[in-house]
UniProtKB/TrEMBL annotation:
Residues 1-124 form the Semialdehyde dehydrogenase NAD-binding domain. Belongs to the aspartate-semialdehyde dehydrogenase family. One of its GO terms (biological process) is threonine biosynthetic process. One of its GO terms (molecular function) is NAD binding. It comes from the Bacteria. The active site is at 144 (acyl-thioester intermediate), 237 (proton acceptor). The lineage of its organism: Bacteria, Bacillati, Bacillota, Clostridia, Lachnospirales. InterPro entries: ASADH-related, Asp_semi-ald_DH_pep-lack, NAD(P)-bd_dom_sf, Semialdehyde_DH_NAD-bd, Semialdhyde_DH_dimer_dom. Keywords: NADP, Oxidoreductase. PANTHER family: ASPARTATE-SEMIALDEHYDE DEHYDROGENASE (PTHR46718:SF1). Signal peptide: none annotated. This is Aspartate-semialdehyde dehydrogenase. The keyword NADP applies. It comes from Parasporobacterium paucivorans DSM 15970.
């Protein structure tokens, strides 16, 4: 599903052109349209420009590398297989921008949300030394579940978020599913998503980490505890967040920080960057998944229901589009930032 989202987001992209698609050997040799078959899950039609692309074998690295300037990676393999194939492309001097989780904790691989930690791309120089490359490297984006609340906390970082409790309500597209192929999710909530709670607690700390001796050292705070639920929603991850600060800010100041937040992607006017990354919604019943997940073409984050809490300092709700900002769109924005900074170039 993320691969399909990449295809739709890259249609008519002003900087990038899809020239090749690659997959496992069982799809190789077919056209993209034949390989996908009835499994096209996007709401829009498959772009004409990719229908007749011949699917290449992902394991034939040299052949693929000759045809492309860089690759987006969204593959269904084991973590070890993903690490191996992504490193193989990097060593073939092809930059890899990955949606996969396999390399998120490799110490010299940057895991980046461009509005939060673009400086982590500087670790690429150390990664290239390890790999022995001049052009090739791997960069990744974080888990989709954290992107409904981590940006809101990031905008308040100078107030010292100390303790965070979060529950995420995650759409079925996060599992690559639709209601047609997962009918048991109708009228149902599953209170477990494998691996999500650890990612939700730990990955924000890596985003807020620092580069030391050529590796990313995660931040030590805030302490985050998470629960992650699968809910009967097509797209959009929602979070209910409780937070205590070292220096408790005024509510009005928090809202002002969110609504006026700008970062490097906005300054550079990158093609996929939202003009407004964060917005606070005053209505008592917003944000709502169906109404608000497509804010800024799915690249923005909607926040609401900010109020003081009886245990923590504040509580609020966040919402982001999990397959756009949380997956393919976030990776495309990373690639745009890497291109703007000279890490990705045409051969």
């Amino acid at each position: 599903m993320v691969g399909q989202r990449f295809i739709t987001l890259l249609e008519n992209h002003p900087w990038f052109e899809v020239v090749s698609v690659a997959a496992s050997g069982r799809s190789a040799g077919k056209t993209y349209e034949e390989a996908v078959g009835p499994r096209w899950k996007m709401d829009v039609l498959m772009p004409e420009a990719v229908k007749n692309l011949t699917v290449l074998n992902i394991n034939e690295v040299k052949d693929v590398a000759e045809k492309v300037d860089f690759v987006f990676s969204a593959v269904d393999m084991t973590k070890e297989e993903i690490k191996e194939i992504e490193d193989a492309y990097a060593k073939a001097e092809i930059p890899v921008v990955s949606n996969n989780s396999a390399h998120r904790w490799t110490p010299d691989v940057p895991m980046v949300v461009p509005e939060i930690n673009p400086e982590h791309f500087e670790v690429i120089a150390f990664q290239k030394k390890r790999l022995g490359t001049t052009r090739g490297f791997v960069a990744v984006k974080p888990n989709c579940s954290i992107q409904s609340y981590t940006p809101a906390l990031n905008a308040l970082k100078d107030f010292g978020p100390r303790t965070v409790a979060v529950t995420t309500y995650q759409a079925i597209s996060g599992a690559g599913k639709t209601f047609q192929d997962w009918p048991e999710m109708l009228d149902n909530v599953i209170p477990y998503i494998g691996g999500e709670e650890e990612k939700s607690e730990k990955e924000p700390l890596r985003l807020w980490g620092r580069i030391e001796n050529g590796v990313i050292v995660p931040a030590e705070d805030p302490v985050i505890t998470a629960q992650c639920l699968r809910v009967p929603v097509k797209d959009g991850h929602m979070s209910a967040v409780f937070v205590t600060f070292d220096k408790k800010p005024e509510k009005e100041l928090m809202i002002e920080r969110w609504n006026n937040f700008k970062a490097l992607p906005q300054e550079l006017k990158l093609p996929s960057a939202p003009k407004q990354y964060l917005r606070y919604m005053e209505e008592e019943n917003r944000p709502q998944t169906r109404l608000d997940r497509d804010f800024e073409n799915g690249m923005g984050v909607s926040l609401g229901r900010l109020r003081e809490d009886t245990v923590f300092d504040y509580k609020f709700v966040g919402l982001s589009h999990n397959t756009v900002r949380g997956a393919a769109g976030g990776a495309v924005l990373c690639a745009e930032m890497l291109a703007a900074q000279g890490y990705i170039t045409a051969k």
